[in-house]
Each structure stands twice: as structure tokens, then as C-alpha cells.
Automatic annotation (TrEMBL):
Pathway: tRNA modification; N(7)-methylguanine-tRNA biosynthesis. Its EC number is 2.1.1.33. The keyword S-adenosyl-L-methionine applies. Pfam families: Methyltransf_4. Keywords: Methyltransferase, S-adenosyl-L-methionine, Transferase, tRNA processing. It catalyses: guanosine(46) in tRNA + S-adenosyl-L-methionine = N(7)-methylguanosine(46) in tRNA + S-adenosyl-L-homocysteine. This is tRNA (guanine-N(7)-)-methyltransferase. One of its GO terms (cellular component) is tRNA methyltransferase complex.
Length: 237
């Protein structure tokens, strides 16, 4: 291995095109300074420097309960859910620039002030950018299922992520998950049911989280005959 080349750690996503359409480009230019929190990068453009820190009180101009979403996409669910809870601050991790631009446009049009977006690896950001026991909730909705067995190591939900989540969530904090792929749903439940610092709030699957709207992505899965399964775990003291 060439030591001069950056180490490529396994991540739960694959970079896609960063090309924006006209409306996305306009939203990016208009709103990025308002909503995007820049963090120092490491070698990969989605990785975070080891010494990176964020003053979230300063980023929002207040201190409030905080929720992190990893993989917020185009904000189809994040934006209405944040609008419904103005007393809470939301930090969204998303690596795809067109999706972030779409989110920024929605936030700007609806004059929502309680969301900030970080364009970086969400699992790494969760570990590095938050104090211990500082988060009220963690959301991982419709993460990439990585179907092939040889790719399971890329799945976002893992024992390692659960260890980090248990550290960053406050006692009693919630981890909400949803997926429309049965094998990934079973994987998530197996991983988290076995974790000593989380308890499943429901026997088996959770009822659908009413606050989460049906997005175009989820509707497409439902139309294809897939079933959405929700899970809710509470961080134990």
C-alpha cells in the first residue's frame, strides 16, 4: 500500500453526480450560507478532520433539544418535520450536493430556521461533532440496504454505529429507524435488540411514526409492493 495515498474507510454510501439543475443551483447560491455548516475535511471530501468542532449553540443562535438525521436526501421528510417542531434544532447529514440544494430551497421557501445541514459522512459526524449525551433523537430513515452479502459491511446500522449513538444520545433519547426492505429491517432489529444500551420500545416492529410523511421514495416502494417497517429504540441510562 502506498502510504502517501489517503486511506479509504468503508462508508455507507456511494458518491453520485454532483450536477445540479438550474433551480437547485439557484437555491445553493442563495441559501448555503444560511443553512450549511462547513466542517474541516480530511483526505476524502466526505470525511471530517480529526480536530473538527462545531459550536451548535452558535450555529443556531440558541440552545435547544437537538435531533440528528443521517441521510436526509432532498429534505422531503426533514423539512415538514422540522417545521412542525420549531422548538427543536435539527442537524442533517447528506453528502449529495443536488439533494442538499433541494433541501435548502425548501427551507428557504418555508422560512424554516431550525435546520442546519452538514455535507459529510453522517456516521463520522455523529461521532466527532457532538458532545456525549447531547442529542434527543437520532433518525436513520430508508438508509441504503446494500443487498449483496459482500456489501453488508457498508450498511449504516451496525454495532459500531449503535455504540456511538448510545454515547451521543441522552438517557432516554430515541433512535427512530425506517426501511422498506425486509432483510435490512430484520438486520437492524437484530443488531439493536442485541445492544446492551438500547431497548426496543415495541414488541417487534414499531407503529409508523406519525410525524414522518410518506415521501416520493417511500411511495414508490409501497407501489412496488414493499412494506415499510419502523423501529424505535430508547437509550438506557
Amino acid at each position: 500500500m502506498d502510504p502517501s495515498r489517503p486511506h479509504r474507510s468503508v462508508v455507507s454510501f456511494v458518491r453520485r453526480s454532483t450536477r445540479m439543475n438550474e433551480s437547485q443551483a439557484a437555491a445553493w447560491e442563495r441559501y448555503r450560507d444560511r443553512f450549511v455548516v462547513a466542517v474541516p475535511q480530511a483526505e476524502r471530501n466526505t470525511s471530517i478532520a480529526e480536530d473538527a468542532v462545531v459550536d451548535w449553540d452558535a450555529a443556531f443562535g440558541r440552545r435547544a433539544p437537538r435531533i440528528v438525521e443521517i441521510g436526509s436526501g432532498g429534505g422531503d421528510s426533514l423539512v415538514p418535520m422540522a417545521a412542525a417542531r420549531p422548538e427543536v434544532d435539527f442537524i442533517a447529514f447528506e453528502v449529495f450536493a443536488p439533494a442538499v440544494a433541494s433541501t435548502l430551497g425548501r427551507l428557504g421557501r418555508e422560512d424554516i430556521t431550525n435546520v442546519r445541514v452538514v455535507m459529510a459522512d453522517g456516521a463520522q459526524g455523529l461521532a466527532q461533532l457532538f458532545d456525549d449525551a447531547s442529542l434527543a433523537e437520532l433518525w436513520t430513515f430508508f438508509a441504503d440496504p446494500w443487498h449483496k452479502a459482500r456489501h453488508h459491511k457498508r450498511r449504516l446500522v451496525s454495532t459500531n454505529l449503535a455504540d456511538v449513538a448510545a454515547t451521543k444520545l441522552e438517557a432516554g433519547g430515541l433512535w427512530r429507524l425506517a426501511t422498506d426492505w425486509e432483510d435490512y429491517a430484520l438486520w437492524q432489529r437484530e443488531v439493536l435488540d442485541a445492544h446492551p444500551r438500547f431497548e426496543n420500545l415495541h414488541p417487534g416492529w414499531a407503529p409508523r411514526y406519525d410525524a414522518r410523511p410518506v415521501t416520493k421514495y417511500e411511495a414508490k416502494g409501497l407501489a412496488a409492493g414493499r412494506t415499510t417497517r419502523d423501529l424505535t429504540y430508547r437509550r438506557l441510562p
